[in-house]
Amino acid sequence: MLLDSMTAPQTRPPAKELHLKPDAHIHLMGICGTAMASLAGLLQSRGFKITGSDQNVYPPMSTQLEKLGIQIMQGYKRENLNVRPDLVIVGNVISRKYEEAEALLESDIPFTSLPQAMGALVIQNRHSVVVAGTHGKTTTTSMNAYIADRLGLKPDFMIGGIPKNFDLSFRSPEGDWFVIEGDEYDTAFFDKVPKFIHYKPQSVILNSVEFDHADIYRDLEHVKEAFLMLLDLIPEGGLLVACEDEETIRDLLSRRAQTT
């Protein structure tokens, strides 16, 4: 286990594989998070019925969800699952002790995390360009999605905000390229690894790496361990774009070179 944040163990494991009918009902707990709202739109555009719950509903993601006609249930209540979904995607804001999470774990409804769903249902076998780093991810992801679009690559993307060059924070997969903001924060209470571990990186753009998220990382060295995991996922023939002017980046590249 990489991260230190701990919760009570769940009573059953998440789904290992996701096999859904085209019109399946998917429910997202914590749907108003920037990544969760984007995933909701991506899945809706692929023909799935989408509902979600949250207790902190505010723009711009609430506005985007309203524009998409996606129902938001207020609060994490047990009865949110009364109309049984085919799959529940659990956001990392959800605690094992929430009433809705307890009801989910007591049921036999399949569940998974946002990053796992992104990898299995959206990215799939596309060329995944993961934009990572402690700061600047949203801006850099927006820039790369726009540049790729202007080059005629017709990229699909998921951005942790709504960029000025696009109407939405996502574009539904149609082509062979997917540009995604890769967060180093943990995945879910049942999967304590960085989100970007599940994004199947073919190419990585790495911004500066600094100490952050003190609630789950002990120190800068602990943060570096997370990014080394990401670099290790780049396949042979893949691409890494990083700035060696920064001391932390030089250290990461040096340590990766010693293990390859």
Can you characterise this structure?
This protein is α/β, with parallel strands linked by helices. The chain is built from seven helices and 13 strands. The protein has helices spanning 34-45, 61-68, 99-106, 114-123, 137-150, 220-233, 247-259, and strands spanning 25-29, 49-54, 71-74, 87-90, 111-113, 127-132, 156-158, 170-171, 177-181, 186-188, 191-194, 201-206, 239-242. The strands form three sheets. A six-stranded mixed sheet has the order 8-7-9-6-12-13. Helix 1 runs parallel beside helix 2. The longest helix is centred in the middle third of the chain and has 14 residues, at 137-150.
> Could you give the order of the helices and strands?
EHEHEEHEHEHEEEEEEHEH
How many β-strands, per DSSP?
A: 13
CATH class of the largest domain: Alpha Beta
Structural class: alpha/beta
Radius of gyration, in angstroms, nearest whole number = 18 Å
User: Ends: how far apart?
Assistant: 23 Å
Helical content class: 25-40%
Would you give the CATH topology of the largest domain? UDP-N-acetylmuramoyl-L-alanine:D-glutamate ligase
The CATH superfamily of the largest domain is identified as Mur-like, catalytic domain
**How large a portion of the residues is in β-strands, by DSSP E?**
15-25%
DSSP summary: helix tally: 7
Q: How many distinct folded domains?
A: 2
Shape field: globular
Which sequence of strands runs across the widest sheet? 8-7-9-6-12-13
Unreliable stretches: 4-8
Please summarize the sheet with the most strands.
Answer: 6 strands, mixed
Q: Mean pLDDT, as a whole number?
A: 90
Give the CATH architecture of the largest domain. Answer: 3-Layer(aba) Sandwich
